[in-house]
Amino acid sequence: MADVVEKRLREYFKKNAFRPGDPIPKEMELAEALQVSRNVVREALSRLKMLGMIESKKKRGMILSEPDIFGGFERVLDPLILEQQTLKDLFELRLVLELGLADLIFLRKTDKDIQDLEKIVSKSTNINKTSFKVKNEIAFHGKLYEMTGNHTIMRFQTLLMPIFEYVVAEEEKQGAAYSISRITHIDLLEILKNGSAGQFKEAMRAHLSPHFERLI
Amino acid sequence: MADVVEKRLREYFKKNAFRPGDPIPKEMELAEALQVSRNVVREALSRLKMLGMIESKKKRGMILSEPDIFGGFERVLDPLILEQQTLKDLFELRLVLELGLADLIFLRKTDKDIQDLEKIVSKSTNINKTSFKVKNEIAFHGKLYEMTGNHTIMRFQTLLMPIFEYVVAEEEKQGAAYSISRITHIDLLEILKNGSAGQFKEAMRAHLSPHFERLI
């Protein structure tokens, strides 16, 4: 029942062209408009609150608000409850993103970005401990996402990262050996400074080849 | 209150290592375990049902289930309630995906896939009506996603498509003129048949250049 009412509520807001900031009718009025009980309306409203589509404001009652676009996604990204195939799919999705970023990065990179990457790369040369290596890896690739200037893509990658690491760790547990990339962060940085987006794509593909080797 | 309880419920399932298919405690027991009212538990459970994390089974009560990974995302993807910046970000995210697909496509393409693309391309040559052109465009690019064999990526693109089209339509309303790609679907298909992933990336970038021209 809440499924139906939740859907009807979303359609109701759409049909009446509610926009973020608009006050929405009270629970009781909605119950009357949709001909259902107040309890069911409350339950459906609670779902929309979780998605950030509705906010309760002091004195103003409820208003429609701009939803958290990945709020629901974030809540379900638990490796323990997702199927193996879905985890594998998400692993590949992150590879696809990583390979598709080049054009946005070259469109928007700044001198400051290059300096930041240089700092990250310089820190990596003296690292032996695995946990530091992983952190450095995350810092370098995270910075590349940041350089796109696209906060939605940045957030998406941040959410996918733990799944990516989980899949890698699981495979290593099962004895999968990762070969070492012939292209390093230093090479990628050099191309960002003096190369083209096309060269960067090719180099990134080579950098990620240990992951591609194990896809079928 | 439901926010807190919803979070605690998710943590509770995680801590107790519940897996899809496992029966979960009754509403009343959960209310006792979390020391909150039954109404609040019901509300929180309803939210998790929306995400597909919980299912009600006849005779078996509630069980934990594999969530719909993009269920929440799908519900909030309404251009009317998202900020302009978010819409623009999602537009770019789809471009990034499109540019990043090449390696998966070349890894998994089959003769049947090529035949399907040939059919789509052959239908496009005699088309003049805009609505048919758009449909053909969607069919061609949709087929490329299908060729990755990755259902999560396919679903994600299907969800992003209406947002992508909305952004293009809005820009055209505001007088933005789209130039015509020098690389056509026929060229892309030829590379899929006889070329390399690297060539495909370059060609896809050129095919999408009308969209890139208007990004800053």
TrEMBL record, chains A, B:
Pfam families: FCD, GntR. Keywords: DNA-binding, Transcription, Transcription regulation. It comes from the Bacteria. Transmembrane segments: none annotated. Residues 1-67 form the HTH gntR-type domain. PROSITE patterns: HTH_GNTR (PS50949). The keyword Nucleotide-binding does not apply. InterPro entries: GntR_C (IPR011711), TF_FadR/GntR_C (IPR008920), Tscrpt_reg_HTH_GntR (IPR000524), WH-like_DNA-bd_sf (IPR036388), WH_DNA-bd_sf (IPR036390). Gene3D superfamilies: GntR ligand-binding domain-like (1.20.120.530), Winged helix-like DNA-binding domain superfamily/Winged helix DNA-binding domain (1.10.10.10). GO terms for molecular function: DNA binding; DNA-binding transcription factor activity. This is Regulatory protein GntR. It comes from Sphingobacterium deserti.
